Amino acid sequence: PSSLTNRVQILLQSPAVVGAGIGGTATAYYLRQEFGPGVKIDVFESGAVGGRLETVKVGDYEYEVGGSIIHPLNLHMKHFVDRLGISPRKDVASKMAIFNGKELIFEESDWFIINFLRFLWRYGFNLIRMQMWVESILDKFMRIYQYQQYGYSFSSVEKLLHAMGGDGFLTLMNQTLEETMIGEGFSQVFINDLVEPITRVNYGQSVRINGFVGAVSLAGADSGLWAVDGGNKRVCSGLLYNSKSDLIPAKVTSIAVKVRPSKSGAAASFYEVNYIGEDGAAHSLYDIVIIATPLHSGKSDITFSGFSPPIPSHYPGQFHQTVATLVDGLLNVSFLGTTAAASDFMVSDVLTTASEGSIINSLSSLDPVHIPPGYKPTPASHKKVWKVFSSDPLTQEQLKNMFLSWNSVSETRWLAYPAYSPPQRKTPPFILHSRLYYLNAVEWAASAMEMSAISARNLALLAHHRWNEQDGKIDQEDLHTRLRGEL
């Protein structure tokens, strides 16, 4: 019995993380930072480490097929690559065009001044105003890093957003990007021609997504975007290794709350995580559990038992399907309604407007996740790897319209991000039960690698403060004004 008691005590010093995507592995990394070397961290993952960050091999090279871009102001992602000693991928020149289903309504020139004058002629100062508007939102967004640096955490997505941008950010969550931008004085033609193609490539959805995720999407059209050499998923395996966690390759089926008497005689609750791995069904007890996989229909079917009030297996709302089709082939440039010769066509990213009968959200020529020495982009007269984003799988007929010939076609169907339809009156909770937390609640504000990393750090801090009863570090607003006095 004494050895059993010891075993239970040791087990009960371990937090568990369910999911080893960027959110789960970042959570393990931050839990290790907060709780120190003494705890045993278990990470459950039934699929590949990386989650929605994934690469596919085509010919001799690997290509990014999941989350692919990181913003220069994504400080957590920057910290991860620095800490893990991973390099950013070498930059390759790229050019953008916008396709309305019949022809290219805009094609980027090599000359900045020409692009600027074209936009000025067509949209007035809308583009410059949009950059200023996105920048003002990013300025507020950056406050979260200061809060987290000083160890402050938030008990709900709404409180986290409010700390960053006050009521303005909550308003953004509850109206569409289109309503927000029209309210800010942007023209409808500018929104249709330029803003919607950006939301279509980033979220596969229209400008009727919420204003906050819309702003995140527009920030993703900035210059200076980067990716990880060898594939973004390398960050996940690096964080897992760095956190000294134990990876348990198993599918979590249910989580039950168990109440046991503690030494002091008071009842203490533990979480029994039931899972199925290669050796069959098993379960383990934990005192803290963080779920880092979406609790939504089609994404997860974890059941919760013994909780009062009950915890749903699925929260309201659906995840949006995006199909990523990688085609190693020869593009049919006339599909884009251009009269340019294929040998002169150097556009690498074709965004699309929401035109009637539009079947694709975007078309991009891909560079490998590791850029070999001497690598140069080639014109469309060469066979190369193209990535087509669409809501539905492409038919043979559609492929034949887009490509003259191909060596291979590889299709990945993602339930990639929430289907956003504001008003988002209430996001799912971060706190499911006293020490049971839900990371992916943040995706209903905006889904992005950095948002998952912010949520991971927030929950590691929140779990630590609540474990140690440090309420003074939870839900403290206006820190930036107080810090200004301290600094």
From TrEMBL:
GO terms for molecular function: prenylcysteine oxidase activity. It is found in: Lysosome. Its EC number is 1.8.3.5. Residues 106-476 form the Prenylcysteine lyase domain. SUPFAM superfamilies: FAD/NAD(P)-binding domain (SSF51905). Pfam families: NAD_binding_8, Prenylcys_lyase. GO terms for biological process: prenylated protein catabolic process; prenylcysteine catabolic process. Its cofactor is FAD. Keywords: FAD, Flavoprotein, Glycoprotein, Lysosome, Oxidoreductase, Signal. Belongs to the prenylcysteine oxidase family. Prenylcysteine oxidase that cleaves the thioether bond of prenyl-L-cysteines, such as farnesylcysteine and geranylgeranylcysteine. Only active against free prenylcysteines and not prenylcysteine residues within prenylated proteins or peptides. Involved in the final step in the degradation of prenylated proteins, by degrading prenylcysteines after the protein has been degraded. This is Prenylcysteine oxidase 1. It comes from Periophthalmus magnuspinnatus.
